[in-house]
Each structure stands twice: as structure tokens, then as C-alpha cells.
Amino acid sequence: MSDIRDPGLADAGALRIDWADRQMPVLAAIRERFAAEQPLAGWRISACLHVTAETANLMRTLAAGGADVVLCSSNPLSTQDDVAASLSVHHKIPVFAIKGEDRDSYYRHIGQALDHHPHVTMDDGADLVSELHTTRTDLPPEVVGGTEETTTGVIRLRAMAADGALKFPVIGVNEALTKHLFDNRYGTGQSAIDGILRATNILLAGKPVAVGGYGWVGRGIASRAAGMGAIVTVVEVDPIRALEAAMDGFRVANAAVAAATCQVFITATGNLNVWGGAHFPLMADGSILANAGHFNDEFELDALKEQSTGQREVRPFTTEYRMTDGRRINVLADGRLVNLGAAEGHPALVMDMSFANQALGLEWLRQHVAELSPQVYSIPDDIDRNVARLKLVTMGIAIDGLTPEQEAYANSWQSGT
């Protein structure tokens, strides 16, 4: 039994899922093998992910592999209602997600996904695991493991493991090179800019843009914004990343200087209050705040509300806050993930690799679960490299391998000048 907006949207969702599937050949090949081998047979899986066309193809793959799957959303604004309808109606996969749901509905849907009594969790931000360890403490004994999709979730899970609180092993899919080097950098780099442009229709050329954080997500956003002619300032707390940003040609400044000199602010840190109450008075009229991190904590929105005299929606997914001095500050997608709140998320081509890692990571978990302890594990290197090889093949790219002589040279200490 699903909780979705409208089952009548299913046919439109099917078209969207099929379109994405054409751009996901690696996952399609895994789905074909899974259907034949049934590596996930007998597992109940509860997934808390962005309900998009790409995710739908991952769910189809897990179901093809024998898993009993249910899905809820990992963000109140990221659900594509037509995709949720198609998964429920055409593929008989229960979905608990409605775009724009309030906080109570969001957590009710997580609870409904957990009512599935999962053997395995799939998370994007660790909300499912957090609920299991706080309000649904009866369930963890049934859970043998999980996967985590994003940086923020891996950070939370590692903190749980360090405190001795984590009760089962979790595969940190985000740690796969074919995930964070590509999904985080190229996927978010493009889709975050896409969300900002859809919500505002601004011209980036010549615009002073601040990027908070220079991890893989921040690198991608800064690169894409600069490529469209923006004047990019990077704000960092890590001296090595700040130095890297400077040597990549970006202006580097602290948050206060950026607040006073930039007009578009994009956060990508996975932390909170990158720009907050002390910074909003410094921002120019018409400033735009967009978050590309996971949760809507990267801007101190409560402080912004306190400093404003009112707010109104001036465009879809664009809320204008009017400050006491008449300035206007615009927040996109309620401060949530702008690429999914105001646009369609990552292109399917890059999600093909991320979700291939999810599927193969679950297969690996099934094979090795008895050997694992309650901590965060990275995707094995051979799986990561296999995903890269498969992706290259689908792109029509051939590469060389080392010759036996080169292998010997690379592993020898005797050879030299």
C-alpha cells in the first residue's frame, strides 16, 4: 500500500523512467544479471532515497534481483510524483512519498518504510538509520546491514560508529571513486546550477557567486559557475582545500567578506550555518541563497526569518524575505537541495555509476555480511573499478592494460636509473 499524490500520473512517470533508463546502461546490465541470478532473494529492503526516475531504475534492479523493496523519500522536495505513481502502479513497489510533504508526513513515511521490517536499509542522509536507532529501537536486531549514498550520511554514520552507537554494518557508497568523483563533482556541479537557473532565470555571466565548501561538490559547482562566466569566491575552513581553490584560480575569502561582495550564495559543506545571522545584514538587495548540501541547515534560516519583516513566494521555489531596511534576500527550495527541489537532480548518465555501486554493494554485503562488524565500510576497489570499466565500454572508450613487462617494472624495486 503506497502513499503517493496521484496514481493517475503513472503513465507520465513510466515515460520519465524509460528515458532515464536509456542513459543508465551499466545499471541495466546489472539488472539483467540480477534477474537471472537472484542474488538478493529473500531480503526485505527499505530505501530512503530521492524518488526520481534514476532511483526508480535502481528499485527495479533490486526487485529483479529478488529483493522485496519499499521506498520513501529522503527529502520533502525531491520526489517526482509521476515516478512515485509509476513505481507503485506499474512495478508494484510500495512508495511513501509526496513532493512538498510537511515534516510530519516526511517522518510518517519513513515510519511506513520501516514497518516493512527490513533486513537492509538504503539511505541518503542517514535519516532511516537514525530513526532505527532512536524511535524504532525494536527493529535493529532484524537489520543485517545497510548502504549510504551521500557525504552527509557517511559523516553521521561514522560519528555513530565512533560512539559505539551503530548497530549494524553500512556500506558507504559515497566513498566509491566512481560515485564521489563523478556524481558529486559533475552531477551536482551541473544540477545545482540547473536548479538555480530554473528557479531564478538569472544570468550567471559577470555575477559574483560564493561557493561554501570546496569538497567534490563545491569543486564541481565552482567549475560550472565559472564556466558560465560567474566571478567565483570560495569559502573554506580547511587550509588545504582553500589553497587548492586559490591555485585553481578562484578568489578565496571568509564568509563575511563573501557576504559583503557576492550576490549568489551556494552551500556545499554538509554542515550548518555557513552563512547565518551575522552575515545576512551584509548581503546586497536581491541576494540569492541556494543549498547543494543535504539538509536545510547550511543557511541559518531561523535567523533570516527573525531579521525579516515578511516573506512571499515570488517564483516557484523562490521565497523572498524582506529585511527591515527594505533589502530582499531570496531563498531557493526552502533551503533544501536546490538541484532536486527546483530541478530534476543529477543527469541519469552519472547516476548510472552511483546506483551501479548501490546494487553491487548490496550484492557484496549479502556475500560478506557474516564477516562484518557495526561500522562504515567503503565499496571494495574491485567493484569500483569494474563500474568504471563498464561505464567506459558504454561510452565507446577503450583503454590499454599494463603489459607483463610493465607490471613487473611497476612492482619491482630493483629497476631504476
Features:
417 residues; alpha/beta; eight-stranded mixed sheet; seven-stranded parallel sheet; 15 strands
Helix-strand blueprint:
Blueprint: H1 10-22, H2 25-37, E1 44-49, H3 53-64, E2 68-73, H4 81-89, E3 95-96, H5 103-114, E4 120-123, H6 127-134, E5 145-148, H7 151-162, E6 170-172, H8 177-200, E7 208-212, H9 216-227, E8 231-235, H10 239-247, E9 251-252, H11 255-261, E10 264-267, E11 287-291, H12 301-307, E12 308-315, E13 318-323, E14 328-332, H13 338-341, H14 348-368, E15 376-378, H15 381-394, H16 404-410
Parallel strand pairs: 1-2, 1-4, 2-3, 4-5, 5-6, 6-15, 7-8, 7-10, 8-9, 10-11, 11-14
Antiparallel strand pairs: 12-13, 13-14
Helix pairs in contact: 1-3, 1-4, 2-3, 2-14, 3-14, 8-9, 8-14, 14-15
Describe the protein in words.
- The chain has 417 residues and is an alpha/beta fold.
- Helix content is 44%, strand content 16%.
- It has helices at 10-22, 25-37, 53-64, 81-89, 103-114, 127-134, 151-162, 177-200, 216-227, 239-247, 255-261, 301-307, 338-341, 348-368, 381-394, 404-410, and strands spanning 44-49, 68-73, 95-96, 120-123, 145-148, 170-172, 208-212, 231-235, 251-252, 264-267, 287-291, 308-315, 318-323, 328-332, 376-378.
- The longest helix is centred in the middle third of the chain and has 24 residues, at 177-200.
- The radius of gyration is 22 Å and the shape is globular.
